[in-house]
Amino acid sequence: MTESKAMIVGCAGKMLTQDEIAFIERENPWGLILFARNIGLVEEIRMLTAHFRLLTGRDDAPVFIDQEGGRVQRIREPIAQSYPPGAAIGNLYRRDPAAGLRAARLMSRLHAADLRPLGINADCLPVLDVPVQGAHDVIGDRAYGNDPETVTLLGREAAEGLLEGGVLPVIKHIPGHGRAFSDSHKALPVVDTPLEELRRHDFPPFAALSGMPMAMTAHVVYTAIDPKRPATTSHVVVQDIIRGELGFDGLLMSDDVSMNALSGDFAARTESIFGAGLDVVLHCNGVMDEMLAVAANTPILRGRALDRAEKALKRLDDHDGRLDDTAHVAGLRDELNGFFTAVV
To answer: How far apart are CA 235 and CA 271, in angstroms?
Structure first.
């Protein structure tokens, strides 16, 4: 198998530029992530994902997207319907638990039915963060609820729905972004909550779903664990909490390395991420100068990290073939929409 570098990168537009083609051929990033700027017509998306795989020489190379529903939904109408946010699923669950669980799984199966034909095989979902009163709205209605039990139950259904549809889930943001009082895109959140309270409120959904194939870290400092470094660059958080206490042994990827929560230049950020024990670094914005710096400090994906990556990709074999049937998918869509008088 062709060796790849332990990174997931973005691209600038709806098709790869000559510089991006040369970069992918030279560096062979493990994965690609798409954003709204990359979404054109159906055939354009298919051509983009196929071109990436052709350049890497890997037919199963992962292509990621944030397709949650609500305000975080990169592919919209007319390609994909407008889906409700996680909070709407949570509200339904509180009124009718069976309906809420069914809706969480249905929505993920429909995400998979939307994404797979486009060549997208990984969705950064479910959000397992459990917000607290007064926390920054960066999570907000993306969360299924404000208690760990609701988030765990609905998050599990969402993750299993994606797997049934042949799309890999990425649980996020481990070990919990729900009590951050700032947006990690703009500043570094610092959480001073005692460890026992984190164990009671924030950690349980991640521990319960520790068998999922992939997880994304939180750019959050937990002073009770490591007062100096955010989880993404903290060896203590990664080894003692994520790998140890929570028992997550899947592929661990960073949140976006270009977010302002992280300090230092891109070489330093990348080195810190791998120094903490993460398997893969994520760079999203498609800025070539930044990508070059990240690539220069990213190792080849090998050893335990490669084992985790290969194990994750094998989960794609569990696809439910009925999702390739237009009539079956239409029935699922009608069932989901029937749970909501208005799609949020």
So the answer is: 12
* The token pair that represents 248 in the structure block: 């997550």
Q: Name the CA radius of gyration of the chain, rounded.
A: 19
Distance CA 272, CA 237 (A): 13
In tens, the pLDDT along 233-251 reads: 999 999 999 999 999 999 9
Residue 37, in any domain of the structure: no
**Does some domain include residue 343?**
no
Domain with 328, as residue range(s), is: 5-9+13-26+52-338
Q: Determine, yes or no, domain membership for 41.
A: no
User: Is the model's pLDDT at 342 over the cut of 80?
Assistant: no
Q: Average of pLDDT values for 81-87?
A: 96
Pairing of strands 29-34, 214-217: unpaired
Q: Which member of 185, 265, 318, 325 is catalytic? A: 185
CATH of the domain at 285: 3.20.20.300
Query: Is 185 assigned a catalytic role?
Result: yes
**Residue 42 belongs to some domain of the structure:** no
H helix intervals, the chain: 18-27, 42-56, 86-95, 97-115, 148-164, 195-197, 204-208, 235-236, 266-276, 288-296, 303-314, 326-338
Separation CA 225–CA 271 (nearest Å) = 21
C-alpha–C-alpha distance, residues 289 and 195, integer Å: 39
- The token pair that represents 85 in the structure block: 């946010």
Q: Is the dihedral of CA 137, 104, 32, 179 positive or negative?
A: positive
Marked catalytic residue, from 226, 255, 256, 279: 255
| 279 three-state secondary structure | coil
CB 232 within 8 A of CB 226: no
Structurally, the chain folds into a number of domains equal to 1
pLDDT digits (tens, 9 = 90+) for 319-333: 877 888 899 999 999
Burial class (CB in 10 A: 0-12, 13-18, 19+), 243: middle
